[in-house]
Amino acid sequence: MAKKKEVTVEDKLRALYDLQLIDSRIDEIKNTRGELPLEVKDLEDEIEGLQTRLNNFNTDIENLETAIANKKNNITEANTLSKKYSEQQKNVRNNREFDSLTKEIDYQDLEIQLAEKHIKEYQAKIAQKNEIIDTAKEKINDKDVHLKHKQDELNSILEETEKEELLLNKKSDELGKMIEERLLKAYERIRSNVRNGLAVVTIERGASGGSFFTIPPQRQVEIAARKKIITDEHSGRILIDSQLAEEEKKKMSKYIS
Fold first, then answer.
1. Which tens digits make up the pLDDT trace of 80-132?
2. Closest to 173 in 3D by CA, of 4, 9, 26
3. pLDDT value of position 77
4. Does residue 17 belong to any structural domain of this protein?
């Protein structure tokens, strides 16, 4: 039975840097989109909010129109009763009955006046809401045009990079599975804590990449020896020597544009 090959520290460093190269390229692709995905989402949310507001106003108008119809029915009923009481006044037997019917007629007239007043109020509210609806529709149309432009722009970028990004994500997953969980979590934690996403960096002019703090010569010798995983005491990044970096860049060039 063949003996399983031991995974050395150098193997781990190479796998980590390969993963860093792939993830950095994925970051570059995402950066080409800039703020477009957020802008598209914001516009979609804004349009949805305006549409909800529009629907609410339309519901309000429907309710007001129903209320107007009810008031018109009340007026019709009041007119019918008023005529009925007027006819009955012609056949009364005494003043008390006549006065009682007069009060009923006056009451119905007041009901008609009140209903007409309410109808005017409801109609004014409908006119006001229709103005707001027209303004909201204009805003939605403007936002729709703007959204389409942003979506087309984003889709164009996505079409250009989709195939490459899928390949890179697949390779990133493959590399991630090759790295022990503890080390992978450390790599991901460092990446999330640094602005440029670089968790694995080379020594440049005696300092770790992206840092101004000089690394002592003895430390640089240890890094070049590749016998243990060494991190920058200031940034927490994993350090590798430039020769290893160049070798892995050449190897991974088929994946990175």
1. 999 999 999 998 889 999 999 999 999 999 999 999 999 999 999 999 999 99
2. 26
3. 96
4. yes
Structural domain contains residue 109 = yes
Q: Where among 153, 175, 197 does a domain terminate?
A: 175
**Which two three-digit tokens encode residue 221?**
């010798």
CATH value at residue 14: 1.10.287.1490
Query: Which residues span the domain enclosing 14?
Result: 9-32+180-252
**Is residue 153 left, alpha or beta, with left meaning phi > 0 and alpha meaning psi from -120 to 50?**
alpha
The backbone region for 92, taken as left when phi is positive above 0, alpha when psi lies in -120 to 50, beta otherwise, is beta
CA proximity to 86, closest of 67, 105, 100: 105
pTM for this prediction = 0.61
pLDDT tens, position by position, 172-197? 998 888 889 999 999 999 999 988 89
Taking the C-alpha atoms of residue 54 and residue 57, their distance in angstroms, rounded to an integer, is 5
Last residue of a domain, one of 175, 199, 218: 175
CB 15 within 8 A of CB 175: yes
Check if the beta carbon of residue 248 is closer than 8 Å to that of residue 202: no
In one-letter notation, the amino acid at residue 72 is K
Identify whether residues 24 and 51 lie together within a single domain.
Answer: no
